Every structure is written in C-alpha cells, then in structure tokens.
Amino acid sequence: MRIARLLSELKPSAMRTLSTIIFVPILFTSQAQVVNGGFENGLNGWNTPCACAPVMTSGDIPPGGGSTSLAIGILDFNCLCAVTDAVHQATPWLYPGQWVLSAWIKSAEAGNVPGASVRITEGPAFTSPLVADVWSFAGAWTFVADTFLVTSITNFSALELSLIPDDGNQMAAGLFAYFDQVMLEPILGTAINGPATGPVAIFPNPATQKLWIDLPETPSSLQLFDAQGRSVPVHQMVFSAHTLELNVEALLPGPYVLRIANSSELSTLRFVKQ
Prior knowledge:
Order of helices and strands: HHEEHEEEEEEEEEEEEEE
Mean pLDDT: 79
Low-confidence stretches: 1-31, 189-199
Strand order of the largest sheet: 1-2-9-4-7
CATH architecture of the largest domain: Sandwich
C-alpha cells in the first residue's frame, strides 16, 4: 500500500516525529467531547481559578466561529490564583488511542513567545506532567492542532484541559488572549457488522494539501463533514492500489469527519486541516 511504502522510505529520525499514522480502536460515546468548547454558553463546563481571575466572553471570534469566544487576561501577580491555576475542565473520559487537540487562539501580543496555549496535563496545568499542547504567539486568530497518544498508563482521573493566556511572559496588565472552538477528537474507524476488520491508516494528520487513506477495496460512498456537522463537498479524489487520495487544500482549517463505505465496512475517520 502507498502509505506503507511511504513509511518504509522514511529515515529513523523522521519516523520518531511521525506521530500521525493512526491505528484505530473503537468506541466513541457522547461523553467523549469537550463541554462548551465554543463558549456559546459562557463559562458553562469550565472552572475558573478564583473571582479575581480576568475571564469573560467576547464578541471577537475567529472565522467559522459562533457568536462568542473566551477572553482571558494575561497572568497577573496581583491575582495569585491565576498564577498557580488556569481556566480548565476535567477530561477523565479520554481513553487509550490517538487523539487530535485543536483550537483557535489569538495571543495577547504578537511575537511574544511562548504565547497562549491550550494544554492537557495529568493534574493542574502548571505543575503536572504534560500530555499534549497547542499554542500560538501570532497576536491574531490562528488555528492550531496536533495529534497525541494516550496510553494505558495515563492517570485518566487527573486529566485536565486548560487554557493558558500567555505562559511566563512579562507584559503590561490589561492584555487578553482569546480562545474558541476548543476540541478533543479521537481518530477512529468502525465496521458495519461489528469491530473493524483491521487498522485504518490515514496520513498525514493534520493535513495541508493531500490526504492518503489505506482501504481494502474501492469505496462505494464517501461523505465529509465539518465540526458543525455540515456536509462538505469533496472535489478531487483518486483511488489506486488500495489507497484513496483526497485533495483537501481548499478546505478551511479545522477538524473534519470522513465517512467511507464499501460493500462490507463503514469507516469513520477524523482528521484536521491545518
């Protein structure tokens, strides 16, 4: 298969960085999702450090967002709880496998590294082992995404998803970082009559121009949906030698769900357009 051939040609150093080939188990429940990641319901589902923490909803939104985002003031040493804790929600529903963490971020000040971030940790954001993070220091709305692996030894009950306005920076008080469309999505595949017959490989993920998917036979149907569940047209695809090639260059940045059916199997795959 084409993906296997691509992998065999990669150098060992490249293989170490290639965390986006997905081999997929498969159970996905309604609980496995971020609560109010678009902040359309204010702070519902999120915990704030304390009353003095500068946190509020905002009408400053990214492309494709809803009506509100979340604005968080930069770390203020006059509000000590915001220095030791962050706006967060518990995510104990994560399970072993490959996941995609994505968000729209507008950092408080352009070029001020490390900027604003969204992170998953095994406990409080500033003092616990890091599981995954995405960040931006562009000072403008930027879509960021990364894949990460959850292992069976993860402390699931301690997992937290946190929003960090500008970690470690020395900046003037009164600046805000903005967050929207925060999502955690598993990458998975299912079969029509029970468990999938084998692992589904999809490469690369996140994708920028083209996406390759290994399939056992020619697909009979293909559907693509965006994060809001809207059907998205697929303009260019080629199936050859058990590999489906999709051109995703024209897609807007964000997470997508791809449903592919053939005579015996239905696969549901998730990928991110970078």
